[in-house]
Amino acid sequence: MQADNAGVIAPPPLIFLAFLVLGFAFGWLLHLPGAGIAPIYRLAVAFVCLALGAGLILAAALRFRSAKTAARPWLPTTAIVSDGIYRFTRNPMYLAMALIHAAAALAADSLIALAMLIPAVLVIEFGVIRREERYLEAKFGEDYRRYKAAVRRWI
Questions:
Q1: What average pLDDT does this structure show over 114-137?
Q2: Which of 48, 52, 83 is nearest to 65 (CA)?
Q3: What gap in Å lies between CA 152 and CA 87, rounded to an integer?
Q4: Residue 132 to residues 35, 75, 81, 95, 107: CA-CA distances in angstroms?
Q5: Is-contact 121 97, C-beta < 8 A?
Q6: Cα–Cα distances in Å, from 81 out to 37, 38, 61?
Q7: The pLDDT of residue 2 is above 80
Q8: Helix axes 12-30, 117-124, angle to 10 degrees
Q9: What value does the mean pLDDT take over residues 69-82?
Q10: C-beta neighbour count of 73 within 10 angstroms
Q11: E strands within 9-113?
Q12: Is the pLDDT at 152 greater than 70, yes or no?
């Protein structure tokens, strides 16, 4: 019998954190230079990314709470959340985590940590999102397929 969850490879926040830490470690070990962007601009962009990410997570979490379904992908999903922020992106929490990853890398002036966002997003895409989509399609059928056709995966 198949478990009633998406079977994601790891909790998404830990995936993003692992790649961010790897980026910081590579930068430190290899003594890689920063971007050379004035701190005021770099920190301003980091703050905007952090604020957008936090706002997206809050908006998404509130939608899950009002739908009375789990936001954690390793728990059973009881409803398709398609209103609020979910009218614009199917994955606002993962988009938020990517923005927060970018904010941390920018604030630390670490180009390699910023570059590690690419493999992090690929792992999220193939190890989390695609598994979630297969699970939701199997569980909710045509309702989820209609939602998927109407709303973009990321932005």
A1: 96
A2: 83
A3: 9
A4: 36, 11, 13, 15, 32
A5: no
A6: 40, 41, 10
A7: no
A8: 160
A9: 92
A10: 20
A11: none
A12: yes
For residue 2, which amino acid is it?
Answer: Q
The tokens of 108 are what? 């630390």
Contact in structure between 99 and 52 (CB atoms under 8 Å): yes
Backbone angles phi, psi at 4, to 5 degrees: -90, 70
Q: How far apart are CA 24 and CA 18, in angstroms?
A: 10
Report the chain's mean pLDDT, rounded to a whole number.
Answer: 95
Residue 109 near residue 26, CB atoms below 8 Å: no
Torsion on CA atoms 71, 73, 79, 83, rounded to nearest 10: 50
Contact 35, 109 (CB under 8 A): yes
Amino acid present at 90: R
Q: Is 146 helix (H, G, I), strand (E, B) or coil?
A: helix
Find all residues with CB under 8 Å of 135, minimum gap 6, and list them. 5, 6, 7, 77
